[in-house]
Every structure is written in C-alpha cells, then in structure tokens.
Design goal:
The protein has about 475 residues and is an all-alpha fold. It has helices spanning about 40-55, 55-60, 60-70, 75-95, 105-110, 115-145, 150-170, 170-200, 215, 225-230, 235-240, 255-265, 265-285, 295-305, 310-340, 360-380, 385-415, 430-450, 455-475, 480-485, and strands at about 5, 355. The protein has one domain (about 35-480): Amino acid/polyamine transporter I (Up-down Bundle), CATH 1.20.1740. It is built from 20 helices and 2 strands. Strands 1-2 form a two-stranded antiparallel ribbon.
Length: about 475
C-alpha cells in the first residue's frame, strides 16, 4: 500500500516542499523541487525529449500532410522545426533561471500574471487529459490487430499499468518513457536505413523506380502550390505538440543545469533526422501520389516495397507511441494539478505526495478522467468525441504562447537587473520569440480557414469562458490565490 506523506504545518504536501511564496532565485535554489525526488538522469531526460518530438503525428498524421502538399511537406517541417527550436530555447532560458516542476505555468504566473498561470496550468492539464483519453483508446484499438479482445478491456489494462508505474516512482516513469522512445527511434532509423539501401542497392519491389528525383518529378516540389504547403503547417505544428514536456521534468531532474540544456540543444538534430530525414527517404523511394490521409506513410512505404511485415511493425510502433503519450499524460497532469494547488489555484488536497515523491491524488484524478474518455468513445464514437479531442491542439499551442511571452517578460526584467540572469540565454531573443509568436498566430489563422481544423477554434472560447468564470469564483472565495504572483 502506498502511504501519503504530508509536510508539517505548511500544507504543501511533503517534507521539504517549497512554499508557494518562496522567493525566486537562480537555478537550483533550495526548495525549488517542491518536495519531488530528483530521480531523472541524463539518459532518461534525453529520451523523454526525443519521445516528446516523435508521436502519432509523424507515424499517422504525416500521410494527410503528404497528400495535401506533396514533397514540400519536408520544407514545412523544416520551417516549423526552427520555430520549435526558438520555443524550446525560450523555455530553456526560463528553466535555467528557476527549474521547477510547474514549469511554464509557474513562469506565466510570475511574469504575466496570476490569471495567466491559472489558465496555463489548467489548460495544459486538460490538454494531457484529453490527449490521454484519445491515446489510450487508440492503443486499445491497435491491440485488435493481434488479439480479438474488447477494446475497453485493453484500455482499462493500459490505464492501470501506466497509472501504477507513475505512482511507484518518477524513475519508473522515466524508464518506461526511455524504452517507449527507444522503440520509436529504432523504427525511424530502421526505415531510413532500409530506404538508403533501396536507393543505393536497388532491392525490393520499389528498387527500380526509387530515386531522389521523385521529390520533384511528380508535379514538382510544390505540386499543390505554396498554398497547399501553408495549409499543412497546422498539421506539422500539431505533430510537435508535447515537445515542451521536458520542461515539466525540471523539478525532478538530477542535474537540470546540464541535462536540460543538452536535451534542448539537440532539438534541431532530432527534427532533422526523425522528421526531415525520414520524409526525404520515404518520398525518394515511393512517389508522394501513393500516400493517402488516414494511412501511415510508413505502412504505405512498406507496402510499396513489398515488405509485408511492415504493417505489423508499424502497428507495434504506433501502439508504443500511443502508450508513450498516455504515460506522459499521467506524469504531467499530476504535476500541473499540484502546482496549481501549491499556489492556491486548485483544491488543496492535490498537494499531497507519496513517500516516493509522486502526486498521488492529482495523478489518480487525471487517470480516472482518462478512463471516462474510453466510455465516451464507446458511447459516442463519432462527432461528439471528435469535438472534445479537437481541443487538444489549440490548448497545446497555448502553452507555447505562454512560454514565449514569459521569456520576453523575463528577459526584460533580467536586463533591468530585477531578477537573476539565466545561464542558458536564448540566442536572438526576444526577436526570435516574437517571430515564433507571429508564426503561431499565422497557424491559428490557417486553422480558421481549414474546415477540418476550425472546430478547435470553436472549442477555445468555451474553455476560456469556463476559466474566466472559475477564476472569478476563486477570486471571490480565495483572494490570496487569485492575486498570487511572484512578480
């Protein structure tokens, strides 16, 4: 049985937990771990960072992007990858100023205002709950490829296993994420090597036609025009959602000053290899005209190569990607709820930690909601569930916006000497942060143009209204929590 350990008198859940009103300071200041155990090593942080950048958006979603833009999707990933790097370097600067588990919610609270922290924390929590709902359901559906088992049983088993792993220790979470990410990395590297072999040695059914000229032979590099390429930017950005997860691990990293900058600085390399490199190889072996929305480009490529084992391999990899996302959701939701509670912006019982330093009640509450998602999917498998799922995209980008705005505000304060300078400054900031904000704004406009993505924008005002009303209630019942700010 897991016991709960609550700190004496401070009410913040766990001995040694930092008080919500603790003074800010340089990275690694005492108490900034807020009672968590710093158990995530460099190996795990690196793979968590890699895993956050590789998910079903690549393994499944890239098929839709290829059909809309052709080979120019490669360029879309490259441009978006630069923006993602700007976002991650902005986050890195904040993390080295003060590495805390609340991460961008804490920074939004400190540098933008208490409502910004409130909205960011609850929005990011909802993002992972909704993502967990969809991914655990997807993982269960992937299991039907091998086993004729009711989908709800697989979903229940996966949820219980990941929930238990997250409660046992943060180290076990990190270990699971390490191996989940390893499977994804191995699959992509394997695909790249196979494609290289076909291009150079000419084996498989695709050997006679494989050539890098396929990147421009079938209608050119921009077969659907520049407009088609622009419309894929939203698909591309959605594929990168969760790359910021490494920031949530800051409060539980063994050596954040070394591991986090290294993980962030390798973002361009990861995008270059796992996204751009993989797409260049696939589209050089198989013409872009053979890819269709809803079908994994990896599966389609294996089929064109005549490698029948490909479907089973990709199904296993996509299952792993879904479980990885669920695992990340279990981890981050509990931390976000506890951060909100520590700052009097959430129920106080969410502050409790187990002896192993895991947020018991927050993780349990979130896991329970993820199971409700399985039931919703069973009852209304059509539009009702898709409307809920669509919100994940816009809520994920909200976290990016808050990271950038917080970094801009932080840099201005640091330059005035009001707060300590970070040891990991974002190059080109604040101009790179402003550029990234403008880019995200353009993506939101494109979402409004695309009828398939427009539903995300309809969900946003509803959630904003809920947050606004909730904050007014909080302000009335607990003025201290509503007014709290580190500024």
């Amino acid at each position: 049985m897991t016991s709960v350990q609550v700190g004496k008198d401070d009410g913040h859940g766990g001995k040694g937990a930092a008080r919500a009103d603790a003074p800010t300071g340089a990275a690694g200041a005492p108490g900034e771990d807020q009672g968590y155990h710093r158990a995530l090593g460099a190996r795990q942080i690196q793979m968590i960072a890699i895993g956050g950048a590789i998910g079903t958006g690549l393994f499944l979603g890239a098929g839709k992007g290829i059909s809309k833009a052709g080979p120019s999707l490669i360029l879309a990933y490259a441009i978006a990858g630069v923006v993602i790097f700007f976002i991650m370097r902005a986050l890195g600067e904040l993390l080295m100023y003060r590495p805390v588990s609340g991460s961008f919610s804490e920074y939004a609270r400190e540098f933008v205002g208490p409502f910004a922290g409130f909205a960011t924390g609850w929005t990011y929590w909802l993002f992972w709950v909704v993502t967990g709902m969809t991914e655990v359901t997807a993982a269960a559906s992937y299991m039907t490829y091998w086993f004729d088992t009711p989908q709800w049983i697989s979903a229940l088993v996966f949820t219980i296993i990941l929930y238990a792993a997250n409660l046992i220790s943060v180290k076990l979470f990190g270990e699971l994420e390490f191996w989940f990410s390893m499977v994804k990395v191995t699959a992509i590297v394997g695909m790249i090597l196979i494609c290289l072999g076909i291009l150079t040695l000419g084996f498989s059914d695709a050997g006679d036609t494989a050539s890098v000229t396929l990147l421009w032979d079938d209608g050119g590099f921009f077969p659907k025009g520049i407009g088609g390429t622009l419309m894929t930017l939203q698909i591309v950005m959605f594929a990168f959602l969760a790359v910021e997860l490494v920031g949530v691990t800051a409060g539980e990293s063994k050596d954040p000053e070394k591991t986090l900058p290294k993980a962030i600085n390798t973002v361009p390399l990861r995008i270059a290899v796992f996204y751009i490199g993989a797409l260049i190889m696939i589209l050089s072996v198989v013409s872009w005209t053979n890819f269709k929305p809803g079908i994994s480009p990896f599966v389609a490529a294996f089929d064109e190569m005549g490698l029948q084992v490909g479907a089973a391999i990709v199904n296993f990899v996509v299952l792993t990607a879904a479980l990885s996302s669920c695992n990340s959701g279990m981890y981050s939701t509990g931390r976000m709820l506890r951060d909100l509670a520590l700052n009097s912006q959430g129920p106080r019982f969410f502050t409790k930690l187990t002896r192993n330093g895991t947020p018991l009640i927050g993780t349990t509450f979130s896991a329970g909601l993820m199971l409700i998602g399985v039931w919703i999917n069973y009852q209304w498998p059509g539009d009702a569930f898709n409307k809920i799922v669509s919100f994940a995209t816009i809520s994920g980008m909200w976290a990016w916006v808050m990271i950038l705005v917080s970094q801009i505000r932080y840099r201005a304060k640091a330059d005035r000497g009001e707060v300590p300078q970070s040891s990991f400054k974002a190059p080109g900031a604040p101009y790179t942060s402003w550029f990234a904000l403008a880019f995200i704004g353009m993506v939101v406009v494109l979402m409004g143009i695309d009828k398939d993505a427009r539903i995300s924008l309809y969900c946003a005002p509803v959630w904003a209204l809920i947050l606004g009303v909730s904050y007014l209630v909080l302000k009335k019942r607990n003025p201290q929590g509503a007014a709290f700010s580190r500024r």
